[in-house]
Write a structure and sequence with these properties.
The chain is built from no helices and six strands. With 75 residues, the protein is mainly β. The protein has one domain: Probable tRNA pseudouridine synthase domain (Thrombin, subunit H), CATH 2.40.10. Strands 1-2-5-4-3-6 form a six-stranded antiparallel beta barrel.
């Protein structure tokens, strides 16, 4: 499991936003998990500066706002 970073906020479109600080190779559609290895969602978009990009996660949970502030992981 790769540590991504804390989930910053829930966007207006309902996606979870994470700012990456490390050079982590990711793919669109890749699954994202919480610290208890529960699936939170899938990576929908990668955007922002190349040095510190952001990812947008399309949630697969019923209450995505409860994951804001928690650390996200990817396989």
């Amino acid at each position: 499991m790769k540590r991504l970073n804390k989930i910053l906020h829930l966007s207006k479109s309902g996606n979870l936003i994470v700012k990456l600080y490390a050079d982590v190779p990711l793919k669109l559609g890749q699954k994202v998990f919480d610290s208890k290895l529960r699936e939170v969602g899938k990576i929908q978009d990668l955007f922002g500066p190349v040095a510190n990009p952001f990812i947008s996660i399309s949630p697969t949970v019923s209450d995505p706002s409860s994951f804001v502030g928690k650390v996200a992981y990817s396989d």
